[in-house]
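Hey team,

Sharing the Zinc carboxypeptidase A 1 run so nobody has to redo it. Sequence (417 residues) first:
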Amino acid sequence: MASISVVGVSVCCLLAALSPALVQAEMARYDNYRVYKLNIESVEQLQLLQLIEHHSDGYTFLSDPVNLNTTVKLVVAPHKAAEFGEFNQRFSLNAEVAFENLQALIDRQLRGRRETFGWTAYQTLEDIYAWLDTLIEQYPDVVSPIVAGESYEGREIRGVKVSYKQGNPAVFMEGTIHAREWISAATVTWILNALLTSEDLAVRNIAENYDWYVVPVANPDGYVYTHTTTRLWRKTRSRQNVLCYGADPNRNWDYKFNQGGTSTIPCSDTFSGPSPFSEIETRTLSEYIRSIPNLSTYLDFHASGQLLMIPYGHTTEPLDNYYELMEIGTKAAAKLQERHGSIYKVGNIAEIIYVASGSSLDWVKGTLQTPLTFAYELRDTGEYGFLLPPEQIIPTAEETLDSVIVILEEGKAMGYH
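Structure output:
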């Protein structure tokens, strides 16, 4: 009887600890958490890492262990150091320490906060939304507010429409559907600013001859959570059960749902959700995208890996205009490389990164038949991943805009607009 009583008390305390109404969360710290770089060379190693991912107490993957002959980053908590040392030896992981102290890397990302909005630092959701309001006031004839959806916690998925004249083909540009990929939101806002302020003729051409629907943060709850509570959070914040929150909002779209590259385990970072469009963010965002007239181009921004990807994620079979998109993407990547030397790979999602079904990119192409559909994995190729230092924001955005210009120009030459 005594043991039952103790268990009952423990569960009660656990439930109290998990109740958002009872406990004010503080920002998680990762002091002395090591980040390891691992090359997956055997099936046994892959199975081990996937098992660790599914039972992840004390471990967090910064890139998913999906395929053989790939490299992943794994965060190991101090209390798991001895255990991981045993795994490393037993399974010949040959783990290399990428960073001795994850918190030092996060602190570096948080440097440079300014009173005025800019791109020398990463921006909070509040700052981004306030800046959008400023643009609407400054450019009333060109910029108008849009609400592209809503979130589980009641936030609006806000953005703006930039339109210099009627009758333009439409471009939808979104960022930060994965909450922790801060460079995505920063790149989208920088490009938006360039569309309004740049005097470069190529930028003015695309700014004034397309209607731009721009959503910097497609997952506002998750994005806020990365700034206030857990920097490494990726998913939405919907409650799945007493322990697990959120679904991967880029595995939750209703096109080839759960056809590979997803998890059915609610605590997993790649949990697809219990059903297609179970997440209000993806459901309402899809409804908004569907309503956009004359949509010719969809651009989705992620991090990291330096990839320019086209549909689909569930199969390597070529889509209807595969070769045209590959030609456009190859030219765009070549242009991107010119400014700062960054090398991007181009290809089908399943070909060049991993199988990943239920993405927004696939839904826009497969359901809406939008002809030009590209997803970026922005800088870098593994050193910092999505914890990219803020001094790389502007160079990343500059080279990305160069490539976007090529995508639109080449798409127009092929008759897609």
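The chain has two domains: 34-109, 115-414.

Ping me if you want the raw files.
A.
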